[in-house]
Amino acid sequence: MIRAVLFDLDETLILDHPVSLHALRSCAFYAASWYSLDIPRLIQDAEEATVRLWKASPVFDYTQRIGHSAGEGLWARYETQTHPALKILHDWAPSFRVAVWNEALAQQNVHDDALSEALAHRYLSERRLYPRYPEIDELLKALSNYNLGIVTNGVPDLQREKLEGFGLLDRFQAAVISGELDTGKPERGIFEHICNMLEVEPSACVMVGDNPERDVAGAVAAGMKSVWVERGFRAKNPQYPADLEVSNLLQMLPWLKAL
């Protein structure tokens, strides 16, 4: 019998990639108010520079382990420092953010440190939106008889900010963040931790997420059932088949009831 339903956060409960693109567009249009620029190219070059420079981070291996992405590095505050690597990121990230825009602008022969600094700050502001997927409110009402939890990878302050920002944290009995535990999906430890918090066995849980390599594989390894939600930003991985595949989380309700 299923007693608990666990959810990933980004691109499962709340939109992530579309909001990041919104912030990049806002920055690009602002830059284009100062120089004649190819806006789509500037956005693409900024995205590519973000990934490339992030891989040169002094603590890149740590960010991979806890599932903290390059895009999140553009707006995380790193004020909650549960690990020495987070202090390093706190000190390193400001120059990283400026360098992203310096590189992207340089692709169009623009060299303006002050503008790059302004764009880095603008992104920090524009990215702070936490819209939830449209079915989430109805879904949580339908799941009122289950224990509900959130299992999310990332750094503590950023993920806590998202949890507060999306406005429904009070509907969940537990939430765990990889950066607070120093272990992330797909490792068993983070799943076992939330099971202990909810006082349920893994076999009585369903894990729901958009990432086959982290959410589905982690759930299977922990002894849980899994649901993969296809949001259009991450491809299906046949190596990690879920018990159920959906494109809207309401589609899992009949299956869940049948369990």
Describe this structure in words.
There is one protein chain. This protein has 259 residues and is an alpha/beta fold. The protein has helices spanning 17-32, 39-54, 60-66, 84-106, 113-126, 136-142, 156-165, 178-181, 188-198, 212-222, 253-258; strands at 4-7, 147-152, 174-177, 205-209, 225-229, 244-246. The chain contains 11 helices and 6 strands. The N and C termini lie close together (7 Å).
The SSE string, one letter per element, is EHHHHHHEHEHHEHEEH
CATH topology of the largest domain: Rossmann fold
Q: What is the class of the largest domain in the CATH system?
A: Alpha Beta
Computed CA radius of gyration, to the nearest angstrom:
19 Å
In round numbers, the mean pLDDT is: 97
Main sheet record: 6 strands, parallel
Which stretches are poorly predicted, pLDDT < 50 over at least 5 residues? none
Any chance you could write out the topology, listing elements then pairs?
Layout: E1 4-7, H1 17-32, H2 39-54, H3 60-66, H4 84-106, H5 113-126, H6 136-142, E2 147-152, H7 156-165, E3 174-177, H8 178-181, H9 188-198, E4 205-209, H10 212-222, E5 225-229, E6 244-246, H11 253-258
Parallel strand pairs: 1-2, 1-4, 2-3, 4-5, 5-6
